[in-house]
Amino acid sequence: MSISPPQYDEAALLTRIAQADQSAFTALFHRYKDRVYEIALAYTGSVILAEEITQDVFMRLWAHREKLPALHSLAAWLFTLARNRSFNVLRNQSTATRREKELLHHLPPAITPEGQRLYQQEMQQLIQEALALLSPAQKEAFVLSKMEGLSREEGAARMNIAPNTFKVHLLKAIRVIRAYLVSRDVFGWLLLAGCCRW
């Protein structure tokens, strides 16, 4: 006699998550993470952005977990959130691109070697200020990946942690640094591309 697998009871799972049950949250994450990632990737066309959006969607789910039992369709809520976060990211990138073009329009046609040296010094100073905002683990992951050029596996081995944990530290570090650079009216993507191995 075969034993049928247990039925998936999403309502019970949401109730457990609302009570801060992390094992229930993990089960839900593994059930929906690939689909949320696929939606974010389809809208953004970027693996990095899709990973960040997926992480953000589930962080928001956890942050608002007490409201989950009242949802009529968790899947619809997650997919709508993934779509909206993707639109927001694309809109922010479009704004940054316009600001970048405006800045480049006002730059002199040629930058002297001395001006370039001062620019690089200023950029490095801003990066160091941003790094000071990170937790020790986030800072180490960022330095290993973006400044030393190590792979996720190499960085994880250096820190003696799992590759997925390394990735989480790195994504959080990138988000903090990008927000800091934007707050200083600096274009984070350009800065990080120029100062680190992106």
Automatic annotation (TrEMBL):
Domain (RNA polymerase sigma factor 70 region 4 type): residue spans on this chain: 125-174
GO MF: DNA binding; sigma factor activity
Domain RNA polymerase sigma-70 region: 28-94
Gene3D superfamilies: 1.10.1740.10, Winged helix-like DNA-binding domain superfamily/Winged helix DNA-binding domain
Superkingdom of this protein's organism: Bacteria
Pfam families: Sigma70_r2, Sigma70_r4_2
Keywords: Sigma factor, Transcription, Transcription regulation
Protein name, per record: RNA polymerase sigma-70 factor
Protein family according to the UniProt entry: Belongs to the sigma-70 factor family. ECF subfamily.
A GO biological process held by the record: DNA-templated transcription initiation
